[in-house]
């Protein structure tokens, strides 16, 4: 496929260049096209809320006189269904039909992987609003990739900080054997070792965790880090209940994406009661990416995060946010369009100095791509999802929220700012065991109390695996 595309490229793009330079502007504004893939169905139907959010951002950008005043951004989008096979076909359409796209915006890790790997051959920048796979943090394989969604490994520095805070020196792990958890655990293991913490037991399972849980018990694991999806989490904790691997002597730290009441959901694959499950999961700790700016600030788009949510809800026309795919990630899609617009705006001056213009972009032009890359690489603005900056691999840096299940519901116990390496603590973590309590004083800050004031629904919607 890739070979075929490459072979037919030069002749075709020559034709496109000619066509583009002839399509003379009607209203004085030249159009720049974004080629986007929004999954409306499939494993993560995130386009349902992310597409309207991106369109909101686009309307605002186009109406601003201080951003790209000579240009109008237009979105050309298809439904990838979160399926790499379907996305291959759509990518072909995006690249081989006019007009020329200046950037590609995919969502879903599997689709972003495909797009980001192919894009280098077309000198295209790729900007994803919804991909968490750690594998995408790889500048060799994906040299032009950026994402406003943080990598799943973003939490790892937070986790190590917590382990150190609680003076854990020896931990056990149990993981579901899936790429995202394996790469997350590999990264965590490296960081944990640097911090002088030992991983004494490492267990894994494909779909039935019974044996792995029994092994944890046999090897006397006490502090257990678990990495699995919600469905598997229920199976694990039903086994944990049967093996009595919970309570005073044990601490569980979960890595995954869980709904608030995941352990109460009726599941024919387990035979534990809700009461038994609730007993087994009590006290566990988990972390979550903060995707909505907890502070009331007017960022680059002059909208606060609360105003953004209100406008998005009205755009969704009364649809239930909990039943709208990608509602939680919508701020990331909105900020992705802003990151792009601000970056393109930043290139206008430098390009002019070199005798180039954005509208001269074609798939053979590396100079313009390099300029856009540089501008994206140095992004730094206040968005509705928080401060937007990318790390050296193009992944978003963001805050993580730390939660503990107390009395059957999740309580916020602190948060971590990975750009500053700063752990802020409420001091309300509770430990039934004797050995693991933390004794540091609570440290409230202004932003922390604002975090507390946020409507619970906005922060409590746990992310879906992307
Ligand atoms: C867009 O770029 C121009 C200079 O080319 C600059 O004056 C303006 O402040 C930029 N707009 C924003 C919102 O940064
Ligand atoms: C659950 O099922 C297993 C066998 O699948 C059985 O041994 C066990 O007793 C059952 N537990 C309960 C609480 O029904
Ligand atoms: C930003 O929004 C506020 C409230 O809607 C408005 O009063 C203000 O004029 C806006 N600022 C700019 C620069 O558009
Ligand atoms: C992008 O930023 C990173 C630091 O985050 C820097 O090391 C790298 O050189 C920059 N790349 C370019 C092309 O400017
Ligand atoms: C860390 O966070 C606390 C509370 O939010 C704040 O007072 C402190 O200045 C921060 N430190 C750094 C280095 O940013």
UniProtKB/TrEMBL annotation:
Q: Name one Pfam family in it.
A: ANF_receptor
Please list the GO terms describing molecular function: G protein-coupled GABA receptor activity
Q: Give the signal sequence positions.
A: 1-28
Q: Which GO terms describe its biological process?
A: gamma-aminobutyric acid signaling pathway
> Membrane spanning segments where?
none
Lineage, top-rank taxon, reads Eukaryota
- Keyword Transmembrane appears in the UniProt entry: yes
What keywords sit in the KW lines? G-protein coupled receptor, Glycoprotein, Membrane, Receptor, Signal, Transducer, Transmembrane, Transmembrane helix
Q: Which InterPro entries match?
A: ANF_lig-bd_rcpt, GPCR3_GABA-B, Peripla_BP_I
Please provide one cellular component term from the Gene Ontology annotations of this protein: G protein-coupled receptor heterodimeric complex
Q: Where is the Receptor ligand binding region domain?
A: 50-407
| Name the record gives this protein | Receptor ligand binding region domain-containing protein
